Amino acid sequence: MEEEAFEFFKETKETYANDEESLSVLYRAMGEALIGVDLFEAAILVINEAIETLGEDIEFLWLQMERYVALGLSDQVAETGNKIESISPFDSLSWHRMGVLYNEIQDYDKAIEAFEFAQNLDFPDKKKILFELLKVYEKNGNPEKALEKAKELLHLYPDSYFVNLSAASLSAEMENWPEAI
Questions:
Q1: What's the Cα-to-Cα distance from 6 to each of 3, 10, 164, rounded to whole Å?
Q2: What is the per-residue pLDDT for 180?
């Protein structure tokens, strides 16, 4: 079955070799299909071929970075992240997405940097970015900064049970009993 799929892919690439837009769609579809059946290495090969053929399109780079995350290839994640940064340096959505991926591979320093930068670029969902920062600061062993983000969240959403509970827990962890109570 796989061999037939790759043969069909090869034939279809040849058919659309002169149509860059169709070829781009074809590479994306094949890359995502391979991802859907957990053939991450094969997906990376297809995405790499797409980048070689069509250039460093940001969507291909995102697919590539996500596959490197799935395989736990931290060096490649960082390298691809740098390429995305150079293509889209002031896009808060890209920085947020990078923060999520760095968090996934437990590179908390880079995740914090990416989330903070997204916040500075006015990421549209204030609650989401503050919550991401709260979680990653806590995972990184920085309860003071996590509590700072919890307080910012409480300023926006004072009735949030979860954020109140998180703030109280962080305060207790730091033995800041007046704020914990």
A1: 5, 6, 53
A2: 46
pLDDT given for residue 35 in this prediction? 84
The whole model's pTM is what?
Answer: 0.81
CB-based contacts of 135: which residues, under 8 Å, 6+ apart?
Answer: 103, 146
Instruction: Count the residues in the chain.
Output: 181
Q: Is the dihedral of CA 27, 38, 40, 99 positive or negative?
A: positive
CB 154 within 8 A of CB 163: yes
CA dist list (Å): 179 to 9, 48, 70, 128, 156: 61, 52, 40, 24, 18
- Give the span between the Cα atoms of 166 and 154, in whole angstroms: 10
Structure confidence at residue 176 (pLDDT): 65
Q: Measured in whole angstroms, how far is the alpha carbon of residue 84 from the centre of its chain?
A: 11
State both tokens at 121.
């670029």
Q: How far apart are CA 41 and CA 45, in angstroms?
A: 6
Place of tokens 């700072």: 148
Classify residue 9 by burial, with Cβ atoms within 10 Å: 0-12, 13-18, 19+: middle
State which residues of the chain have pLDDT below 70: 1, 176-181
